[in-house]
Amino acid sequence: MTRWAAVKLWGDEVVALALEEPEPDPVTAELVQEAQTYLGSPGALRSWALALPWPRFCAVVRIVSGTTLSEALDGDE
Predict the structure, then answer these.
(1) Mean of the pLDDT values across residues 37-49?
(2) Rounded to whole angstroms, how far apart are CA atoms 63 and 15?
(3) Which pLDDT belongs to residue 71?
(4) I need a surface site. Which of 25, 30, 44, 69 has the fewest CB within 10 A?
(5) 61-64 contacts, C-beta under 8 A, 24 or more apart
(6) Closest of 19, 16, 15 to residue 27, by C-alpha
(7) Contact yes or no for 20/54 (Cβ under 8 A)
């Protein structure tokens, strides 16, 4: 996924705020799997994520935007 996809779902300002959150919930395999169940329906993914508490929503934004993957790859260098 990409930041563009996250921006299309929640808007640039919301994505920027979520990515700046200093204490998002941890990204777990379970959270990734749960988010993946909504990938077939962007509207459902958007609604589901917006219903989550802010720290968890921020973790979902990190998943959808690809930030988590980027951070993991940066850590391998």
Answers:
(1) 94
(2) 11
(3) 59
(4) 30
(5) 61/6, 61/10, 61/14, 61/15, 61/18, 61/19, 61/24, 62/18, 62/19, 62/24, 62/27, 63/1, 63/27, 63/31, 63/32, 63/35, 64/1, 64/5, 64/6, 64/9, 64/35
(6) 19
(7) no
Q: For residue 1, what pLDDT is reported?
A: 77
More confident residue, 1 or 41: 41
Residue 28 Cα distances to 8, 22, 43, 62, angstroms: 23, 17, 23, 11
**25 CB-near residues (< 8 Å, 6+ apart):** 31, 53, 55, 56, 58, 59
> What is the pTM (predicted TM-score) of this model?
0.87
Task: Name the residue with tokens 């990734």.
Answer: 32
The domain spans of the chain are 3-75
Residue owning tokens 């935007």? 65
